[in-house]
Design a protein that fits this description.
Layout: H1 2-18, E1 26-45, E2 50-52, E3 56-70, E4 75-89, E5 95-110, E6 120-133, E7 143-157, E8 160-169, E9 172-175, E10 178-195
Antiparallel strand pairs: 1-2, 1-3, 1-10, 3-4, 4-5, 5-6, 6-7, 7-8, 8-10, 9-10
Amino acid sequence: MKKLFLFSILLLIGTQLFAFDGERKGFILGLGLGGSGYSFTQTIDNGYSSSTTDPESDFGLATDFTIGFAPNNQLELFYSSKVTWLEMVNIYNEEVTITSGIAGFGISYHFVDSRTWSPNLFVNGSVGFSTWTAPFESGSDIWIGTGFTCGIGFEFIKHCSLLASIKYGSPETTVLGLTETTDTIAADILFNVLAY
């Protein structure tokens, strides 16, 4: 994962040097890394009755990948994949890595035009689907449901920003007539690099 992150940073730097003009208008590509405070509950429903676990809360790693297009120097339209990486103990008392993600289409609005750049605030949000899976476990199913994000950020130097965001998802799966749902909410603080 470290190699992938380093490769992505180098790709962003190289792309910035050779393909972008420093104005937000046009193609955009971004990566983010930070921390996530999360909480989740799990529900099992057999069609007649349901039971829900107590909320579990902890901290994890947050990542963000963004690709899109800015029709002008203040508005961005994008596809993003925002993931919380968390550790939990499964029913076999084994520690496993879980990813809780929100992927979808979104919009960002910057309050300052990038042609007259200065440190600036922006707001964003996205709507799409949520996932819950154990990516490093063989035979792991991917739970899928709806999800959304909203956030506020501060671009403190050109291309670099801090973003505070809230993610909500409700992925589920059905096995042998039992519907299992994980309701997740996470608060992320991310350092983002955006090439434009």
